[in-house]
Amino acid sequence: MDAPPPTPRPAGALHGAANGERPTLDEIRRELGDCQRCKLCSTRKNLVFGSGNPRAELVFVGEGPGENEDLQGVPFVGAAGDLLTKMIGAMGYRRDDVYICNVVKCRPPGNRNPEPEEVAACEPFLRAQLAAIQPKVVVALGKFAAQTLLRDSTPITRLRGNWRTYEGIQLMPTFHPAYLLRSPAEKRKAWEDLQAVMKVLGKQPGSRA
After folding, report:
1. What's the predicted TM-score (pTM) here?
2. Which residue from 199, 197, 146, 137 is spatially nearest to 175, judged by alpha carbons?
3. Strand 99-102 versus strand 51-52 pairing type
């Protein structure tokens, strides 16, 4: 029986991140390049890397780009993005103050769930982004973000609202804005999660999004 092939060593910026060095977001984006690492590259219009403050104390991580994000190359710009912008504003921030990115950087066709090999191809870049930014808090929006970062398959309904730690960074799992649009009664729980984040960051509660 043949031995499995060795795991390739990460190159460049990702290798630095794996060794505790802090690559810059620009270095990570250059290494990502015109990514062809999974089949999502064949259907995307634009790669959606992330946007916001490269020194943000607060980072939001979503699942993957939707149709509007794919067209514009910017994360969270559709209806769910409008809601996230309101949530960020209610926390006392502007979008430019925080950083927003996704687990996968290319839109899954028809907005289907990302497949495991797609997540695996993109995850090193997400982890490098967080290593570059070194935020105080990460908010994981929805099950794919929370489960990917935490290596935990617990449902988001049980993960949400409970502080966890990712690479020494405090992480709060909560519901994805797209889910909140479909289930507006859950907005109260999401706001409770965000208020807990605000308390850690020393922000005063504002009005609920």
Report:
1. 0.90
2. 146
3. antiparallel
Q: 34-44 pLDDT, tens per residue?
A: 999 999 999 99
**Residue in the block written with tokens 């617990």:** 154
Return the pLDDT at 6: 42
Return the pLDDT at 16.
60
Q: How far apart are CA 146 and CA 160, in angstroms?
A: 9
pLDDT computed for residue 21 by the predictor: 73
Q: Which two tokens stand for residue 96?
A: 């430019």
- State the DSSP code for 3: P
Q: What is the DSSP string of 160-200?
A: TTS-EEETTEEEEEE--HHHHHH-GGGHHHHHHHHHHHHHH
Question: Cα–chain-centroid distance for residue 65?
Answer: 10
Phi–psi pair at 12, nearest 5 degrees: 50, -130
Q: Return the CA Rg of the chain.
A: 17
Helix (H, G, I), strand (E, B) or coil at 209: coil
| Residues in contact with 6: Cβ distance below 8 Å, sequence separation at least 6, in sequence order | none
What residues are paired with 58 via a beta bridge? 137
Decide: 102 and 141 in contact? Cβ < 8 Å.
Answer: no
Sort strands 99-102 and 58-62 into parallel, antiparallel or unpaired. parallel
Weakly modelled stretches of the chain, pLDDT under 50: 1-9, 207-209
Percentages of the chain per state (helix, strand, coil), in multiples of 5? 45, 10, 40
